[in-house]
Structure prediction request, 501 residues.
Amino acid sequence: MFTLPLPLGPETWSVSDLNRYVRQALETDIRLQDVRVQGEISGFKAYPSGHWYFTLKDGSAQISCVMWRQRTARMRFTPGEGESVELSGKVTLYEQRGQYQFDVAVLEPLGQGALFADFARLKAKLDAEGLFDPARKRALPATIRRIAIITSPAGAALQDMLTVLRRRNPMAEVCIAPTPVQGPEAVPGLVAALKHFGRLPAGEQPDVIVIARGGGALEDLAAFNDEKVARAIDALRALPAPIVSGVGHETDFTIADFVADVRAPTPSAAAELCSPVTLGDHRQAIDDLAQRVADVVLTRLDRLQATLTTARLALRSFSPAARLAGSRAALRQAEARLQTALRHQLALKQGDLLRWREALIAYNPQAVLDRGYAIVRHADGRIVTSAATVQTREVLTIRVRDGEFEAERRGSPAGAA
Amino acid sequence: MSPKRVKETSVVDLSEMSYEAAADELEAIVARLEAGNISLDETVRLFERGQQLAAHCHQLLDGAELKVKTLMASGDDGGDDDQT
Prediction:
């Protein structure tokens, strides 16, 4: 801080010591460390190093100014010769050259300060009235098909938004309400466009209303800091559609941004917000559903197949074929046994038959006749088995080996002949 | 969506269906199938209808083109006065 290595007496100082003393004197004055000063730029020179040097003057005095590279790098514009500006910074002394100068922190066009003050005042006022109340803000709907865009028809912001929408949400319908977004026609144009959507019948209303413009300096964005525009935005809360603001660059915050239901950092970001479900998401969702349909059906078919196979196997164990096979085997067995039995019986009967045949042959009367016996019959055909039955003179038929003849009985049955 | 609805909307001509209607019916079919307890005939019918709906949806998605219309410059409101 403030060092006092120097004698306070009439001793003679070196130049270095004197300049250092003055610099420290300046730097310990709080008032001089954060000063706003306005004037005209003169002798402006920007060096390749990035540092800016110029003189700031008013009618009667001037001061040398320097703006270092770190600060100039943030400048969106380069001031011109003779331009009126407002500077913020500190007063100091460049020791080596004994140069009294102003070290510039912020350089703004003249009137910028007033603009900021107006902005801050309006913001506080509307905030107090509740226009920024988060509880009153509506969220974006899940499905967005009709998009209203209030913007300049010629600006790059519109083209950027359309490019994003074509890629992400081509099934949407866009309705552009063209209006100037800076200059004297901007405020009336914005208000009229906002009112237009407020008057549409329910069937024609959009799902979301976007109010957008590209980046610019504070005065370019002035229309979006206007009270009438802010109130027109707030009035649209009567509609179901939320209002999205996409104004300027990411670091720009306008009153419209605070009033809107949703603030997008840029117009392109606003278009992305209007595409909550992208084309890719839709395709994926449909494919997932189709896959689930297929899965259910295939699982069902698999299960039916398994049931069928199980049933088939179970059926086989009870099938008549098995039974039949068993029966057939039994049948064949029975047949075989029958055959054997039959053959046995047949053989037995054949044996009997042979015996009977032999017996028959043995008892063939012709054989008896052949042996010399005769068969004697009565006239009525009965065979004579007893002499007592033949009457005297009865005619008998006698059959011998080679034929028959008749004979008459001599004698009588009573006495044996 | 009750299961009964699925059968009724199948009467609507598929090619006339909007993307939302087709996607909704497809979702209803999935729910119906996953709930189970339906005959084999019905399963097959729902399967075929489901595949048709999915194909129709993809067709609509592939053919989607952003529709852009521009209103006449804000003077067309006619008769409005700027409220201050």
